[in-house]
Amino acid sequence: MKRNTILTIAAIIALCIFVYIADSTFDSYILRILNLCAIYTVLGLSMNLINGFTGLFSLGHAGFMAVGAYTTALLTMPLATKEMNFFLVPLISPLNKIVLPFLPSLLIAGLLSAFVAFLIGAPVLRLKGDYLAIATLGFSEIIRVVFTNTQNITNGALGLKGIPATTNLWWSYGTALVTIFVLVSLINSSYGRAFKAIREDEIAAESMGVSLFKHKVLSFMIGAFFAGVGGGLLGNLIGAVDPLMFRFFLTYNILLIIVLGGMGSITGSIISAFVITIAQEVLRFLDEPMFPGIPALPGLRMVVFSILLMVVVLFFRNGLMGTREFSWDKLIGLFSKKPLAKGGNK
Amino acid sequence: MNLLKTDNITMQFGGLTAVKDFNLELNKGEIVALIGPNGAGKTTAFNMITGVYTPTKGKVLFNEKSIVDGKEDYKEKDITGLRPDQITGLGIARTFQNIRLFKDLSVLDNVLIANHLRIKSNILEAILKLPGYKREEKQMIEKTMNLLEKVGLADLQDEKSSSLPYGKQRRLEIARALATNPTILLLDEPAAGMNPKETDDLTSFIKQIRDEFDLTVFMIEHHMQVVMGISKRIYVMEYGITIAQGSPYEIQNNQRVIEAYLGVDEDA
Q1: Cβ neighbours of A193 in B, within 8 Å
Q2: What pLDDT digit, counting tens, does each position of A151-175 carry?
Q3: Do B123 and A191 touch (CB under 8 A)?
Q4: Can you tell me the mean pLDDT for A36-40?
Q5: Residue A254 CA to chain centroid, in angstroms?
Q6: DSSP B33
Q7: What is the ipTM of this complex?
Q8: How many Å apart are CA A128 and CA A124, to the nearest integer?
């Protein structure tokens, strides 16, 4: 027990050192990718809580991210930039008068996202399976359409530009660590067990005294909170948000991460977030003209991911990790004993 | 003392009346059985009591136990139409005809989940692992281990519940129901699919937990050996109608019950 705590602290310190070195030596392209890795970790984990641990097939993640990204952007943008952005219709007060630091903005973004999740979840979470997926997908599209049309709050289709680029490695990896800590702690608590019970068998869970409504809404809200925070980090990393960013495609990307990593595995989501984010950059050459005489096929990169998703769903239903988790004991066991086959995608 | 009473509960699905005017009375400490041919409406009756269905007509009344000034006190409460989790919270726990364990979770987790309804810490305390929550979690695990010890599953605590043999899965389901601290335990065909040895074990097991946990047991069962062996009273249902009730001896000699089970001799 104690040894594991020490190892965890050591790992966190190692990460801090890495972030410190990376922050000062790597070029902006690599920094951007590393930031995205951490942000997708946050997003993947938040979606895994809802879909993988509680068994609610929700596709509304882009909607929660949109709420978070716009909230953080509007709260952190300097007043002058706000005025420049809203040249068609002025921004409503009090938003045009306040500027908040990054941390409170992120927290407000998360809370607002969780509140929206409550509003949508309360009526919709009684649905199951594909019906829930359709309803949440619809919600996410509604958010996007609303944001396109509320010119005096979101600047409509023009989007917001010149958002301060506050997100750096410290912010993104710090948030990722907090998310991991909170979710691991939650999953291993009595509430986490109740979530898993709902995933395993709703009827039995209810008969054992687990209030379905309360726990589904809780899981949905916590997932949405972190989705909002992740959205906020993303907006302030890229520096611009517009409604088109939050199409279904974004939800699909996160879904890809959790399915590949394993629904119901925190470790799987983290590994998968890094692999997918980096692979998206590495495979960029596929979108460019590869052979002389044959024009480029933009989007070929995504075909690779789509095929990958199909292969995983068909042959490796449990993804990379299934529901297994990383633990120091297992890692040390791996080195000290005979090297066991790691397994995972069998 | 009367613990649970149903007042003419009726369940209609469209034009079909699955259960009609079912009147049940459960007294403290009794083992009562509900028998009847397949499709008679036994499980539907169960589902009305446990809140899975809301009766079309009639009332379910439960004498809720509370402790006032260190003394047990009972108060009658109308529980018709409450949600299953609320009814479990009041002290009525159940098992299922086709075992419904949390298959991918361990034996220990299965029983721990049934402790969740009594938790006092909120979700923030649980995430931050505050001392209050840690104490509760420790108590839960102690209580669960105790319970597993009593039902003879303690050495299997880390096994996946779906990997247990059938008889043990049934036992685990009962243990899980017991973990909710019930006063009434409803068993839906506990002996279904068991071999004679397992059935014998089950019969003594039900008696044992009844005494140990101060329970009242209401069960659906087809296995006559179990039913006649341990029940004090028996209700017989056919096509949703209660055709007889009484002691095992009375039921065995009741003409209508014999007809329901064996058919009517047309020539007689």
Answers
A1: 105, 109, 112-113, 116
A2: 889 998 999 999 999 999 999 999 9
A3: yes
A4: 96
A5: 6
A6: E
A7: 0.90
A8: 9
In angstroms, the CA A221 to CA A112 distance is 10
> Measured between CB atoms, does B141 come within 8 Å of chain A?
no
pLDDT, tens digit (0-9, with 9 covering 90-100), for B10-55: 999 988 999 999 999 999 999 999 998 888 899 999 999 999 999 9
Torsion, CA A110, CA A113, CA A115, CA A120, rounded to 10: -150
Asked if the Cβ–Cβ distance from B103 to A200 is below 8 Å, we say yes
Alpha carbon distances (Å) from A42 to A62, A292, A299, B132, B171: 13, 41, 25, 29, 41
Contacts with B137 from chain A: Cβ below 8 Å: 189-190
Q: From CA A340, how far away is CA A323, in angstroms rounded?
A: 19
Alpha-carbon distance values, A240 to A64, A77, A164, A232, B160 (Å):
17, 11, 9, 11, 48
- Nearest residue to A245 via CA among A62, A82, A44, A37: A62
Q: Which residue of B has its CA nearest to A188?
A: B127
Query: How many interchain CB pairs under 8 A, A with B?
Result: 102
Asked if B126's CB is within 8 angstroms of A190's CB, the reply is yes
Distance, in Å, from the CA atom of B67 to the CA atom of A102, rounded to the nearest integer, reads 52
Query: Token pair 């019950």 is at which residue?
Result: B257
Q: CB-based contacts of B195: which residues, under 8 Å, 6+ apart?
A: B167
Which helix (H) or strand (E) segment holds residue B167: the answer is helix B166-178
Single out the residue of A204, A184, A182 nearest to residue A194, CA to CA. A204
Global pTM reads 0.91
Cβ within 8 Å, pair A189-B109: no
Three-class HEC string of A267-288 = HHHHHHHHHHHHHHHHHHHHHC
Q: In which residue are the tokens 């109308």 written?
A: B78
Top-ranked range on mean pLDDT: pick from A328-332, B56-60, B194-198: B56-60
Collapsed DSSP state (helix, strand, coil) of residue A321: coil
- Which residues in A lie closer than 8 A to residue B136 (C-beta atoms)? 190
SS3 content of chain B, % helix, strand, coil (to 5): 40, 30, 30
**By the 8 A CB rule, do A77 and A99 touch?**
yes
Q: CA-to-CA distance for B250 and B143, rounded, in angstroms?
A: 41
Q: Hey, is the C-beta of B258 within 8 angstroms of any chain A C-beta?
A: no
- Among B105, B127, B144, B162, the residue to mutate for chain A (most A Cβ within 10 A): B127
The answer for B 180-209 residues in CB contact with A (under 8 A) is 180
Paired with A324 in beta bridges are: none
